[in-house]
Amino acid sequence: MKLTKFARTGATALFVFACTGAQAQQPNMTFFVTSSNPGKGADFGGLAGADKHCQALGEAAGAGKRTWRAYLSTNKADGSADVNARDRIGKGPWRNAKGEVIARNLDELHSANKITKQTALNEKGQMVNGRGDQPNVHDILTGSEGTGTAIIGKQDTTCGNWTKSGAEGSAMVGHHDRTGLREDAAAKAWNSSHPSRGCSVDALRSTGGGGLLYCFAAK
Questions:
Q1: How confident is the model over 113-160, as pLDDT tens digits?
Q2: Is-contact 102 96, C-beta < 8 A?
Q3: Cβ(211)–Cβ(37) under 8 Å?
């Protein structure tokens, strides 16, 4: 804490303090939802750029000694193989900023995890807006099947492997708050709920998204 102002009125002393740290440190955190998008919608410059975004936010939160990875899949391109989100994020366990375990391992993450609006916190330990909030940003980019694997097919489900920021293309998203317009499994899926209407910031917003990511500590 830093003393920034001292004032005295009669016998009353007023101390105004300002905290020098931007946010509380989260050294034990191994999972978070990003608090912001870099500004280009689903275009992160590929997986490397998405990982860099996770790493930067993790470092800002005091958890930068870990290796952070974005939970994103990609499809075959230029002779490369599919990349599965589940293969990028380590083996667990994963804890949010409050130390709550959201999954102990990969199998639990993709079957019976504890991701909800209350536990899918951002790197600052804050709750992320969901359905019913303004704005609703519960659409989290994944490009993945419910199993955490790449979606096979000709349709774009990764916004050009996370390089598109316009109206063309689409990305599969999940609902971090496990709720949607219906009461079916897709609406309650954290990682594979529905495709976005496009890849731009405005297109992602139109279906209830903010271009946010799940970030996991792989090491």
A1: 999 999 999 999 999 999 999 999 999 999 999 999 999 988 999 999
A2: yes
A3: yes
Instruction: Provide the 10 A C-beta neighbour count for residue 65.
Output: 10
Class at the top of the CATH hierarchy for domain 29-217: alpha beta
**Separation of alpha carbons 54 and 178, rounded Å:** 22
What contacts 24+ positions apart, CB below 8 Å, involve 51-55?
Answer: 53/213, 54/213, 54/215
Going from N- to C-terminal start, the domains of the chain cover: 29-217
What are the structure tokens assigned to 138, written together? 């519960």
Burial class (CB in 10 A: 0-12, 13-18, 19+), 12: exposed
- Measured between alpha carbons, how far is 65 from 58 in angstroms, rounded to an integer? 9
Q: From 137, 163, 194, 147, select the one nearest 74 (Cα to Cα).
A: 163
The pTM (predicted TM-score) of the whole model is 0.88
Instruction: Tell me the residue type at 12.
Output: T
* Residues 41, 199: Cα–Cα separation, whole Å: 6
